[in-house]
């Protein structure tokens, strides 16, 4: 028998192989884009099964698209061309007991981030990755995209939180790199190679993740500023004064806040007046003895005296703190519900954030008068989600969508930044990478792909296109 669908079905059983209508839920991403019908969805329960799927697909010339929670924003976890095998690790979701003394935990790749947070709650430890999609995003997907999130300025990106990995390679062999140490310079940094590889170099099946002591104290504030330049100046001072206690520094504008208040039930806006720019600040400490409220209050008052801050409120309870974060985290959902949008995942050196947003506004306004910009993101690391909605009443972006993306990428690159800060390239940004990155860098990436996956078995046309092997 050589029908690959039948072979996969036999190998994995009814819980492990979905086809036809049962596969439909895996076809479209969070933005409802791009899905083409796959041959089916493989849902292995063990690393051995993953390896067998890889060997079987390789033998039949079928490509594999690894899929986590499918919340990635670059069409990297759905079948772009159709007829391929989507590999979902959702059944491989075991979370081990944390190693308290070492600050680490073993987690299977299909575990959902929020479940990991919950499992650690009673141990006095945290895994410090937080993002709006944490109720669905899986460890394998977070590693695949090298996710950043709202605490990256303090704890780093996913590559900084992964100590060890187990990966199934394109020939069906398994790399056991499940070490649990920060320091391991025995050769190339293989674990980092798979962080941000978007499923193109291997299937991550298990990881050892780095944990931190849970904060005992937190101080949070929602501040209103006269503009982004004031926020950047305020943020610079805050970094100097709050140092290692600063764990969140998130900015957004009034257009984005309007989308959230119009479309999402967030419990209203906690300040008496709106303004042009907002900052969510969070300080956290594992020690009970650090006067975080005093530090934050002093900086808030100083900001007001200098005219950098117009108004603000310090969270008086965990519920109020959660309310501030909800306003920030619902920004993508608010804009999604507003209608069509263009997402741009930019990073620039933090000192250039205001300059980027100002120049980008002029540039986009010239290309599409009336376009509505909703810049928001992570002030501490310069990551700007520069998302656009069409002018009021316009159905979409017409012919200019591509031009806007190229112009913004060039602007960010010209400021020593990136056009793919934390979401990756996926299928949607390969052309931008070709247009923006030098030939040497592109050749290095193609060489890596060629070395690890010469037959383009894993996620073809993500990061490196098949016709760009050189
Ligand atoms: C509301 C919202 C807010 C978000 N906020 C942030 C944010 O603040 N910061 C941020 O970085 N991202 C953010 N994202 C993007 C997204 O959540 C992240 O990219 C996340 O890491 C994707 O995880 P996932 O499990 O959904 O992966 P998927 O979307 O399923 O997959 C992402 C990539 O990883 C690959 N992959 C999946 N599993 C594996 C595996 N086991 N082995 C190898 N490759 C694999 C896929 O092939 C794909 O290339 C946000 C998304 C949404 C919808």
Automatic annotation (TrEMBL):
InterPro entries: FAD-bd_oxidored_4_C, FAD-bd_PCMH, FAD-bd_PCMH-like_sf, FAD-bd_PCMH_sub1, FAD-bd_PCMH_sub2, FAD-linked_Oxase-like_C, FAD-oxidored/transferase_4, Oxid_FAD_bind_N
One family name in Pfam for this protein: FAD-oxidase_C
Family that this chain belongs to: Belongs to the FAD-binding oxidoreductase/transferase type 4 family.
Residue ranges of every copy of the FAD-binding PCMH-type domain listed in the record: 34-214
Protein name from the UniProt record: FAD-binding oxidoreductase
Organism (species): Aquamicrobium segne
Domain of life: Bacteria
Gene3D superfamilies with a match to the protein in the record: 3.30.465.10, 3.30.70.2190, 3.30.70.2740, Uridine Diphospho-n-acetylenolpyruvylglucosamine Reductase, domain 2 (3.30.43.10), Vanillyl-alcohol Oxidase, Chain A, domain 4 (1.10.45.10)
Swiss-Prot/TrEMBL keywords: FAD, Flavoprotein
């Amino acid at each position: 028998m050589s029908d690959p669908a039948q072979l996969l079905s036999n190998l994995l059983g009814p819980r492990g192989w979905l086809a036809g209508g049962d596969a439909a839920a895996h076809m479209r991403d969070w933005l409802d884009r791009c899905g083409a019908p796959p041959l089916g969805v493989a849902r292995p329960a063990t690393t051995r099964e993953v390896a067998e799927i890889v060997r079987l697909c390789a033998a039949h010339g079928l490509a594999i698209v690894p899929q986590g929670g499918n919340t990635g924003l670059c069409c990297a976890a759905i079948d772009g061309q159709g007829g391929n095998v989507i590999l979902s690790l959702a059944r491989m979701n075991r979370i081990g007991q944390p190693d308290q003394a070492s600050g680490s935990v073993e987690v299977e790749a299909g575990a959902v981030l929020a479940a990991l947070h919950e499992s650690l709650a009673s141990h006095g430890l945290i895994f410090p990755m937080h993002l709006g999609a944490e109720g669905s995003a899986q460890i394998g997907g977070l590693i695949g995209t090298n996710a950043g999130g709202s605490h990256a300025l303090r704890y780093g990106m996913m590559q900084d939180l992964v100590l060890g990995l187990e990966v199934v390679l394109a020939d069906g062999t398994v790399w056991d790199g499940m070490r649990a140490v920060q320091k391991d310079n025995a050769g190339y940094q293989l674990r980092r190679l798979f962080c941000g590889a978007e499923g193109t170099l291997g299937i991550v099946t298990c990881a050892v993740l780095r944990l931190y002591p849970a904060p005992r104290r937190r101080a949070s504030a929602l501040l209103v500023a006269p503009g982004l330049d004031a926020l950047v100046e305020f943020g610079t001072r805050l970094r100097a004064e709050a140092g290692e206690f600063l764990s969140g520094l998130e900015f957004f504008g009034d257009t984005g806040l309007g989308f959230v208040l119009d479309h999402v039930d967030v419990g209203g806006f906690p300040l008496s007046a709106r303004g042009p720019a907002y900052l969510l600040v969070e300080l956290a400490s594992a020690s009970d003895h650090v006067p975080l409220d005093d530090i934050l209050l002093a900086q808030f008052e100083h900001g007001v005296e200098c005219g950098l801050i117009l108004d603000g409120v310090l969270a008086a309870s965990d519920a109020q703190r959660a309310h501030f974060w909800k306003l920030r985290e619902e920004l993508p959902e608010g804009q999604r519900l507003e209608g069509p949008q263009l997402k741009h995942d930019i990073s620039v050196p933090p000192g250039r954030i205001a300059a980027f947003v100002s120049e980008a506004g002029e540039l986009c306004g010239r290309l599409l008068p009336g376009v509505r910009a909703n810049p928001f993101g992570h002030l501490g690391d310069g990551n700007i989600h520069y998302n656009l909605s069409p002018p009021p009443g316009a159905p979409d972006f017409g012919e200019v969508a591509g031009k806007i993306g190229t112009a913004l990428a060039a602007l960010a690159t010209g400021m020593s930044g990136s056009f793919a800060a934390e979401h990756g390239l996926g299928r949607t940004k390969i052309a931008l990478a070709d247009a923006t990155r030098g030939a040497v860098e592109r050749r290095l990436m193609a060489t890596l792909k060629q070395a690890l996956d010469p037959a383009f078995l894993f996620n073809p046309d993500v990061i490196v296109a098949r016709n760009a092997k050189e």
